[in-house]
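Structure tokens
________________
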Amino acid sequence: MNRRQGKLIALCAGGVGLAGAAAGWILAPAAFPHAWLAAVTAWVGWPIGCMGLLLIHALTGGSWGYATRTQLVAGMSTLPLLPLAIIPLMIVLPHLYSWLRPDVATHLANSFYLNLPAFIARIIFYLIVWFGLAWSILRALRLDEHESALERIAPAGLILLAITVTFAAIDTTMSLDPNFSSSVYGLIAIVEMGLLALAVSIFGVAVGGPSDRKTLRDLGRLLLALVILWAYLDFVQLLIVWQSDLPNEASWYGVRLKGGVGPCRGAGRWNAFRTALFRFVGALGAAIVARDGQRHGSADIGRDHTQLVAGGAAILDKLWLCRRIRDVGDDRNCGGASAARATHLVDANPGATRCPLGTSFPRNMNRRTSAPA
């Protein structure tokens, strides 16, 4: 299968997913907002994470960055799809966030931050920063001295990315519960984005052909470190919430672990277990790649597919964060077996839309992506 055929298949798959998402919006309007939010917040980790990894490599160097630069630039180039994905979210905002209701907003101490004008202004600011950084990176890659150009914009770019990603995570997912607060929430989102971007890039490297021993070892170790860091930060947040036992914090996990009613009872615990299992398998796969890089200098492509498990865990985490509130808050979604099946289909279709369309969007770009001589 050549590149043209692959892009055509990806576009067709994305079109089918988009049609399914539209049908879900019509047939299950109560389920669609949270499903689309989960899909968008999971997918945006790919271009933003690619951007961050490009800037990190500009400061640190290493063969891992040159081996994955083509994949990282391609992932970052899907960022123009984000404004299109935000449009449905703007339409369904009242169904997502309780702080938009006047009866709830009047009792919130943070209503100066959680209000519609401020929310929209921050989203516009995030988009301006992200598109500006993407343009700066692509412009730097066109220059003759592209390495030094990237190095000049990397410090300020990483600071801007860290700040905007932190507040974007707070605005989009943490504010689903306006009473919950966590000082580590933004850092978890940053690591999750880097993990997803690196997992997809390693998959692209594996499909493109075997890499040298040192590159494969570096990629495996880096992915392993990100998986461990992500799991550690998430566990620390859970441990602190459990130890503090404060009602406004404990409810964040309680509503997700309890699951829904009827046929959906216990689904929250099952989704949490699946996310934890995917993280473990992702860490194991990263260790295998690092070990094989040391021993053989190459790894079987089929086994390299396990790196996608790490990215799958990031996607499942978003579904777990967004979906449980909907199931508990709206009994109609769990009123029967058919409704439960419809909920799962609505969850799947937005994700099926974003990934293929994002894959088909990058084009062959004339960038300098090789290591300097």
About this structure: Residues 3-360 form one domain. The chain has 16 helices and no strands. Residues 213-244 form the longest helix (32 residues).
